[in-house]
Design brief:
Blueprint (H helix, E strand, L loop, with lengths): L1 E6 L2 E4 L4 E9 L6 E7 L6 E6 L6 E3 L7 E6 L4 E6 L8 E8 L12 E2 L3 E6 L1
Length: 123
């Protein structure tokens, strides 16, 4: 089993920045892809970004390219999401997810999930 714990959410004004962290524990050796999804009020959860174990491959949703950056520290079993130039439409609960295989954008492909952290961007 793998446990994921997110941190770093909060409230920020449009144009501001936040950095989310997701610490993994347990059987982390089995994990390859780690990523972030988000769910805004009244909307379905959507893919944001993901990276493979050594950061060789990354993938971003079109809506966040150039503003959000995913990175990974394998020594600390932690994945980060640096969020710059935030917009009100980025407001959502952000979830960390992990899977054994390669990067996928569908949430049902991820076995492990964190509890989520709220990000609120005001205009």
């Amino acid at each position: 089993q793998v446990q994921l714990v997110e941190s770093g959410g909060g409230a920020v004004q449009a144009g501001g920045s936040l950095r989310l962290s997701c610490a993994a524990s347990g059987s982390t050796f089995s994990i390859n892809a780690m990523g972030w999804f988000r769910q805004a009020p009244g909307k379905e959860r959507e893919f944001v970004a993901a990276t493979t174990r050594y950061g060789v491959s990354t993938h971003y949703a079109d809506s966040v390219k150039g503003r959000l950056t995913i990175s990974r520290d394998n020594a600390k079993n932690t994945v980060f999401l640096q969020m710059n130039s935030l917009k009100p439409e980025d407001t959502a609960v952000y979830y960390c997810a992990a899977r054994i295989g390669s990067i996928q954008t569908q949430e049902d492909q991820y076995m492990y999930w964190g509890q989520g952290t709220q990000v609120t961007v005001s205009s």
